[in-house]
Amino acid sequence: MIFWRRLRRRNQQYFRPVILVTGAGSGIGLALTKLLHPMSQYRVIATVRESSLVRMHAMFPARDGFDIQALDIRDTPGIDQLIAMVDQKYGGVNILINNAGISFRAVAEHMTDEDEVLQMSTNYFAAMALIRRVLPAMRKVGRGKIINVSSVSGMLAMPTMSSYSASKHALEGASEALWYEVKPFGIDVCLIQPGFINSSSFKNVYYTQDSHPDQSLQSEYQNYYRNMIPFVEKLMRKSFSTPEKIAGVILKAIQTENPPLWIPATFDAIFFYYVRRLVPRRFLLPLLFRLLPNAKTWAKDFSNKRTPRP
Ligand SMILES: NC(=O)c1ccc[n+]([C@@H]2O[C@H](COP(=O)([O-])OP(=O)(O)OC[C@H]3O[C@@H](n4cnc5c(N)ncnc54)[C@H](OP(=O)(O)O)[C@@H]3O)[C@@H](O)[C@H]2O)c1
Fold it and tell me: H helices within 45-102, ranges in order?
């Protein structure tokens, strides 16, 4: 027994897992990269879009086993090239952190087909494309970890965020299925679920042509935007969670043997995780609707809703 433990510890000393992080140029990805950079026990590939390369090289001094690579996660040939390079140099990715993501702020009616594709291809298709390409090497060595950064929006949807919620629900559904599929190969799957984070990332939200403040405040949905946008921004500003704290949760998942599939990563995420499980949806949706700011006034001047006959 002691012999096996010593042998395992010795193997672990020589094994330097290869971690690939997407969206490492800002927010959670940047905070995680800052945590990983001094940790020489890991070989790290931090990926950013081309435009952030110079800034990242200036921020992170070169060290053995730390690479900064350009990757637009929607660029399939770019993914192929990167994974081929990692396979050749390191023998494959051991831990994949699917972090890069975007968030559209628009009611469903204000999304175009192209907007929907951009949202889904960034948050879901690209994450799955990376997963498919790292799995063969993980299966070959009999271990690996796939850590997908999801959201509370992957558990509960919010108005003005239908497409973002759909992308995170898709990621959650696929990760749940994947958990069963790859467990027998020694591969773990994790969903990190942050809620509201005190960061400037709300400034990065995407607007569609119709949901842009120049347009939307004249539309039938004006009260939704007038109330939801400041509401979300206020919750983010007041949140005690920061990108650094979420990065800490991801690092813990990296270092934990057999981490759970769902890891709610902020206080509100833990709260909603249990609310969703304990309160029947039939009651939950009307209750949450009442808690949304001035929800009774939404569409007031524009609705032709029919009232039931007496
Ligand atoms: N902030 C929150 O409140 C919150 C809450 C729940 C979940 N999350 C999730 O956490 C993850 C990280 O978000 P964050 O808060 O750190 O936001 P962020 O600061 O906006 O970071 C997102 C990162 O993704 C990158 N990215 C977007 N599209 C890309 C593409 N096509 N190719 C490569 N990189 C791309 C961005 O790169 P560029 O800088 O080049 O655009 C950016 O570095 C996301 O998956 C998000 O959905 C965030």
Answer: 53-59, 76-90
Q: What's the CA-to-centroid distance between 235 and ligand 1, angstroms?
A: 18
Range name among 3-7, 98-102, 192-196 with the lowest pLDDT average: 3-7
The answer, yes or no, to whether residue 4 has pLDDT greater than 90, is no
**Catalytic residue IDs:** 164
Write out residues with Cβ below 6 Å of ligand 1: 22-23, 25-29, 49, 52, 71-74, 99-103, 122, 149, 151, 194, 196-197, 199, 201, 204, 236, 243
Q: What is the reported pTM?
A: 0.94
Judged against a pLDDT cut of 90, whether residue 2 lies above it is answered with no
**Cβ–Cβ under 8 Å, residues 202 and 232:** yes
> For the residues 252-266, what does the mean pLDDT come to?
98
Digit-coded pLDDT (tens) for 286-304: 999 999 999 999 999 999 9
Nearest atom in ligand 1 to 28's CA? 16
Q: What is the mean pLDDT of residues 11-40?
A: 93
Domain boundaries, the chain: 12-297
**CATH T-level fold of 12-297:** Rossmann fold (3.40.50)
Q: What average pLDDT does this structure show over 117-144?
A: 98
Query: What would the DSSP string read from start to end of 120-163?
Result: HIIIIIHHHHHHHHHHHHHHHHT-EEEEEE--GGGTS--TTBHH
Q: Which atom of ligand 1 is nearest to the CA of 202?
A: 1
Tell how far the Cα of 61 is from the centroid of ligand 1, in angstroms: 23
CA 178 to chain CA centroid, Å, is 16
Residue with the smallest CA separation from ligand 1 atom 19 is 27
Task: With residue 95 as reference, give the H or E element that holds it.
Answer: strand 95-98
